[in-house]
Amino acid sequence: MVLIAENLHIISKTTKEAILNKDDEYIINIVKKAFQNGLRVFDLNIGPAKGPLVGSMEYLTNLLNKNFDVDFSFDTSNFAEMRTGVSLLSSKKAEKSFLNSVCADVEKMNTGFEIAGEFGANVIALAFDPAKGIAKTSDERLELSFNIFENAASFGILENKVYFDPLVLPLSVAQEQANVVLETIRMLKEGMGEVQTIVGLSNISNGSPKEIRPLLNRVFLVLAMGAGLDSAIVDGFDVETVRVYKMIRDEIAGNNAAELSSLDSLYFSLYNAVNCFDDIDEIKYDKSNKDELSIIKAARVLLNKEIYSHSFFV
């Protein structure tokens, strides 16, 4: 599984200004913090890259390449900027990079797949048709993914180079959609050969109080891993979420030498419950332990077993 750091994005006004002003020190410090937390792939999110942001992908790619041994996700709707970024890499790094993203819009698909085919890059494909809006059901998302995949194949893109994003919506806005995303991940893994799956993890907690956002992100990642998730764009500064991911990864591989703590055992039980189609209500935990209770509350809300409210976690 691949974790991609989300922290270089123009949504942050301060980061946008740093990119515009070519503030090397600021940007290097962001990357260094996530790098020290074990992240080795960085999402360069420059949005539509219009006006003064034109040329930003070249600047960021060269700066990171000069100072770190990392891989890249080129996140922009400006395909000229996307192509510039991947063209600056060695052939080996280009093949490991991600083009973020294409959708069911034919023109955008064709352009993105042309670039991916030229450089051998991975493609993040959104299960989204701009003409119809965000699909509400897992079946609709799966149908969109099939259509996109057929187009990818026509450009010679291999199955395992396409990463489908079923589109995570904020829990506080569309609670039922968290479970739909998990269902979509499972259906994609079961029905589409070697295609990969990816989510923008922090989207699940957008609009939630900042003190509970890491918990929601972390528990959703565990549940999504159980459903078969292959990659996630995450907060590279979130030490605990990255640690839990590594714990589950190592537990699956049988590489954890020490006995798991009670919290880690609970996380792994949630992973197993989703993976084995079990009911999380059968999981035993210490109800007097505040942290364990919070994890279970988050899981129940994410699986639509409890109605979400900010106060539910107080």
Q: Can you walk me through this structure?
A:
The chain is of the alpha/beta class and 314 residues long. 48% of the residues lie in helices and 14% in strands. It has helices at 13-20, 24-36, 56-67, 79-87, 91-96, 106-119, 138-154, 176-191, 213-227, 239-253, 262-275, 290-302; strands at 2-9, 41-47, 71-76, 98-102, 122-126, 162-165, 196-200, 231-234. The chain has an eight-stranded parallel beta barrel, surrounded by six helices. It is globular and about 55 Å long.
Distance from first to last alpha carbon: 33 Å
Strand order of the largest sheet: 1-2-3-4-5-6-7-8
What summary fits the major beta sheet?
Answer: 8 strands, parallel, barrel
Task: Give helix and strand order, one letter per element, not per position.
Answer: EHHEHEHHEHEHEHEHEHHH
Mean of all residue-level pLDDT scores? 96
* Radius of gyration computed on alpha carbons: 19 Å
- Which descriptor suits the 3D outline? globular
Amount of beta strand = 5-15%
**H/I helix tally:** 12
What proportion of the residues is helical, as a percent range?
40-55%
Tally of DSSP β-strands: 8
This entry's quaternary arrangement is single chain
Poorly predicted runs of 5 or more residues: none
- Structural class, by secondary structure, is alpha/beta
Concise overview:
By secondary structure, the chain is α/β, with parallel strands linked by helices. The protein has helices at 13-20, 24-36, 56-67, 79-87, 91-96, 106-119, 138-154, 176-191, 213-227, 239-253, 262-275, 290-302, and strands at residues 2-9, 41-47, 71-76, 98-102, 122-126, 162-165, 196-200, 231-234. It is 48% helix and 14% strand.
